[in-house]
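Data card: per-record layout.
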Amino acid sequence: MTAAIQTHDLTKRYRSVRALDHVNLEVQEGAVYALVGPNGAGKTTGIKILMNLIGATSGEATVLGMDCKQIRGLSYRQIGYVSENQDIPEWMKVGALLKYLSEFYPTWDRQLEKALVKQFELPLDRKIKALSRGMKMKLALASALAFHPKLIVLDEPFGGLDPLVRDQLIEGLLELAGESTLLLSSHDLAAIESFASHVGYLEEGKLRFSEEMTSLAARFREVEITFETDSVLPSPIPGNWLQAKAAGGVVRFVESQFDDQRTGAEIQRVFGHVKAVAFRAMSLRAIFLAIARKTEAA
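The structure for this 298-residue chain is written out next.
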């Protein structure tokens, strides 16, 4: 497969602070890639570098086969970009803005525009300044989708939106996901879990992991071990066991490299005979909380 986005040792420093630290990221064509992490992790910085809005300190990045430093002017005819704080000329009416933008894109699809206007219930005759935040985000997304971009880049598109508006935006994205590559950053882990195909976790400027969503979900499990008598934690604890705790006759931990046979064998090796073992699948939010707490403990 061909990479729509690729970075090599991408680094951004602000004096002594590394907003990005040697990030190696690859987003394949057709992927729905979610970039997640805590505030200040470097997500927006990375996206701005990819969009050539700021420069990197060192490293390389390509977007749709182009060096990201060359993205300008006509290059944006292939990229639909929406940011949380995007400037929109609020003195214009919704319909006037869409008409104005359509003249810049040879691939602008009037039928798709009409479908998005209907789907998002956009009021064509209303001034943008009178719209709610949710409606402004719908307008920005419609503007970014109507010309069939090869790449859609969304920076925190769901922030502050109510669940209904969020779901409408996701529905619009999914309908066009087959023809575009999608990269988005977001704190809304529940929304991401419902439609992303791949996920990358940024923390303190470092890309801790990048993998398919199904792979991530498969390798994390909450584990509960029950003993006949009171239990104690082993020392040392296996490195792939996170948040291990013992209380009475129960030990609980998060297994970060789950495999039914291997994990079962490791529990038997560490504890010997146990009364019962239970494995539970984890939500994306629970997985990231476990990862974040591991970092805090370190």
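Known properties of this structure: The longest helix spans residues 163-176. The CA atoms of residues 221 and 281 lie 5 Å apart.

See the next section for split statistics.
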